[in-house]
Amino acid sequence: MLSVVPLAVYMGRREFIPKPFRPIFYYFLLDVGCVIIDAACRRILHNNSPAFHISTVCDITILCIIFNSIYQGRKLIIKLAWLIFITVEIISACTVDPFLTSINVIGRFTGSFLIASVALTHAWQLKPTTHTYPEKNPELVFASIVLIYYTSTALLITAQELHQRGWFADFISLPASGVQFELLSLSLYPPIRIMHIALLCYLLYLFPGHRSVRQALPRWLRFRLGWRPPTEPPRYRVLSGHLIK
């Protein structure tokens, strides 16, 4: 549910978001929706595999739409990349990685590889500007977010799946080593996800406007450690990160 934070920031700064980047709203919204689907699948099917398939299709589709909006050249390549991904995903969901019983390792890896290639190509062809620093270029930041997050998560998911299928049996001979590998692979995802959300909030901050990211958040998300002067209504006073009623 970390996507609630950038979604709230977007809603608070939506008038400052340029038109090519506005589809990112659906990226946040569908991400929150996939969390609900995941919970429903766990509750009803006792299996959250469908959520992985749906999440991947939503992510790659929205990212292709955004790149198609901001990438002035080679739009045909973006559309071709999406067609290749959706074809692989459908075939994988029907055969190798069944929709209801297995996560979409092949589809996720294919989609991540294609969208990361598009992001790398777009970042490579961006012309340097003399008025802004590279880290303040929204297109470059967006391409970097996609490149870092989707390559990292694709490698983690693929490594976990290959380990479960015994591909690393020759390298991990002791049971304790296998447990350590699983714990390591699982522990890497939270910091990657937090970095992903933080960079998305930074991207929204880059768009010009008189409202900061913190001001764009609803009051119940404006937490900070330490004491601040009393405000009205009093339930929003914060002391050591806890609400005072």
Please, could you describe this protein's structure?
The longest helix has 32 residues, at 175-206. The radius of gyration is 20 Å and the shape is globular. It has helices at 4-13, 24-44, 49-70, 75-94, 105-125, 138-164, 175-206, 213-216, and strands spanning 238-239, 242-243. Strand 1 (238-239) and strand 2 form a beta hairpin. The protein has eight helices and two strands, in the order H-H-H-H-H-H-H-H-E-E. It is 64% helix and 2% strand. The chain starts with a helix and ends with a strand. It is an all-alpha fold.
What portion of the residues fall into strands of 2 or more residues? under 5%
Give me the number of helical elements: 8
Q: What are the segments in which pLDDT stays under 50 over at least 5 consecutive residues?
A: 236-245
Report the major sheet.
2 strands, antiparallel
Derived from helix and strand composition plus strand pairing, the structural class reads mainly alpha
